[in-house]
Structure formats: structure tokens, C-alpha cells
């Protein structure tokens, strides 16, 4: 079950993706985003804490938005 440290790690990972997109490092951003999305999905599948699920779903939506932006850039 994820804790606050895991959520902080997701925040950092998403920020790294955003930074890579800003630097036009689209391949790096895409790879990092795919790893992050997989990890988010894994945690969503294994937690039952409603508060954590809400937080994870926020990262999931943001990750999907970033994926859409990357797809538009390619």
C-alpha cells in the first residue's frame, strides 16, 4: 500500500517528465512517463485506502494529459 513517500516519488517522476518535455527530450519523457503510468496502475490495483486512491487518480489523470501532449508533439 502506498504511503506519502510513494506519492512524493510520483510527484517527482511527473515533474521530471514535464521538465523533459520542456527541454524537447520527448523520447526520454515518453519512457519515463510509461514507467510512471505503470507504477501508478500497479498501486491503484493494490490499495484500498480511499484517500490514497484519490491521490493516485490525480496522478493518473495528469499522466494521461502528459501522454496526450506527447502524442500531439510527435
What does this structure look like?
The protein has 74 residues and is an all-alpha fold. The chain contains three helices and no strands. Helix 1 packs antiparallel against helix 2, helix 1 (4-22) runs parallel beside helix 3 and helix 2 (26-46) packs antiparallel against helix 3 (50-73). The longest helix is centred in the last third of the chain and has 24 residues, at 50-73.
Q: What characteristics describe this protein?
A:
mainly alpha, 0% strand, 74 residues, 86% helix, single chain
Topology of this structure?
Layout (H helix, E strand, L loop, with lengths): L3 H19 L3 H21 L3 H24 L1
Helix pairs in contact: 1-2, 1-3, 2-3
Q: What does the largest sheet look like? A: none
- In DSSP terms (H or I, runs of 4 or more residues), the helix count works out at 3
User: What class, by secondary structure content?
Assistant: mainly alpha
Oligomer: single chain
Helix content: over 70%
Model regions low in confidence, pLDDT < 50 over at least 5 residues: none
Average pLDDT number = 93
Shape: elongated
Strand content: under 5%
* Straight-line N-to-C gap: 35 Å
Amino acid at each position: 500500500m502506498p504511503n506519502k513517500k510513494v506519492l512524493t516519488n510520483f510527484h517527482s517522476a511527473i515533474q521530471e517528465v514535464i521538465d523533459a518535455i520542456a527541454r524537447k527530450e520527448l523520447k526520454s519523457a515518453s519512457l519515463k512517463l510509461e514507467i510512471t503510468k505503470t507504477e501508478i496502475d500497479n498501486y491503484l490495483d493494490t490499495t484500498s485506502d480511499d484517500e490514497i486512491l484519490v491521490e493516485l487518480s490525480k496522478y493518473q489523470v495528469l499522466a494521461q494529459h502528459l501522454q496526450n501532449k506527447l502524442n500531439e508533439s510527435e
